[in-house]
Write a structure and sequence with these properties.
single chain, alpha/beta, Rossmann fold, 2 domains, 11 helices, 8 strands, binds S-adenosylmethionine, Ubiquinone biosynthesis O-methyltransferase, mitochondrial
Length: 282
């Protein structure tokens, strides 16, 4: 009886202290961080693939192969005049580093110095950030910085970001609150900066190729990698970008050949997989 009463009193004290603390929380900060884009199950799913991330025959080989089309395209969204000003790219959901490293390599091969290009990779799974950091070759280390973070937390903590290009490649279909995710991603871009987003479409064709064929029949991805309910229709993505004052510049479809492990741009395949290039209004 005495123990029960003691516990009740303790409970009251704790709840009073919490409501006291809540009253003194800065309202804006609470508002900014109440909506999380993180879905722990989705992030854990990719963490489990960390050991095989860079394996040429591993479950993510198609994602790595996608660099051959997306890296030059993303690079072309930058104003590539070399005028001494540093160009900055934000890679949201950078995983084990395929895209950040691919972009750094691309600019390295073009002779860009570390003072001309910077790539920031954000990834909420620390295991994957470790993989990305340890895979990065010595000569690219000055061009890439990886952080364990979500875009909403990163932008709230670093409000004056001015990225020339913000990249979300094969990520939005794994987040919670995609509208918030996109809002913070656009916020990280400078006015006039580019947004690049790629994701599977939401259609019977994407279900057949991505889920039925690639996961269940060919076993290219582990079964359950994609959740059909989380896929986003192109029109919804375009509407969200426009709501965030972005002008749509181009939409492309892409096609994967699993036999040769190669990707091609092909607009007939927009319902299966699409990429959007948009520009943030000045
Ligand atoms: C399919 S992988 C894509 C990796 C990389 N973008 C690429 O294309 O090579 C999806 C990545 O998004 C990350 N992710 C999931 N939810 C996220 C969120 N809310 N914010 C940022 N990244 C997230 C996952 O942890 C995973 O590394």
């Amino acid at each position: 009886m005495k123990i029960a009463m003691g516990l009740q009193i303790l409970q009251i004290i704790v709840s009073i202290s919490f409501s006291f603390a809540a009253n003194f929380t800065e309202p804006n900060k609470t508002l900014e961080t109440t909506v999380s884009t993180l879905n722990p199950e989705e992030v854990e799913k990719f963490g489990k693939l960390s050991a095989e991330w860079w394996s040429p025959s591993g479950p993510l080989r198609s994602l790595h192969a996608m660099n051959s089309i997306r890296v030059p395209y993303i690079a072309s969204t930058l104003n590539c005049l070399r005028d001494g000003r540093k160009r900055r790219i934000l890679d949201i959901g950078s995983g084990g580093g395929f895209l950040s490293e691919g972009l750094a390599e691309h600019f390295q091969n073009l002779g860009w110095s570390d003072t001309e290009i910077e790539i920031v990779g954000l990834e909420p799974n620390s295991e994957l950030v470790n993989i990305a950091r340890s895979h990065l070759p010595e000569n690219l280390k000055g061009k890439v910085n990886y952080f364990v973070d979500t875009v909403e937390n990163y932008v709230v903590r670093n409000p004056n970001q001015n990225f020339d290009t913000v990249v979300m490649s094969e990520v939005i279909e794994h987040v919670d609150n995609p509208a918030e995710f996109l809002k913070y991603a656009v916020r990280a871009a400078k006015p006039g900066g580019s947004i690049y987003l790629s994701t599977p479409g939401k259609s019977v064709f994407s279900w057949m190729t991505l889920i039925l064929l690639m996961e269940h029949v060919l076993r290219i991805f582990p079964v359950g990698t994609h959740n059909y309910d989380k896929l986003i229709d192109l029109n919804d993505t375009l509407a969200m970008l426009r709501e965030n004052k972005c002008e749509i510049r181009e939409v492309r479809g892409s096609l994967y050949n699993p036999l040769l492990n190669v990707w091609h741009w092909n607009d007939l395949f927009i319902p299966v997989a699409y990429a959007v290039h948009a520009v943030k209004s000045n």
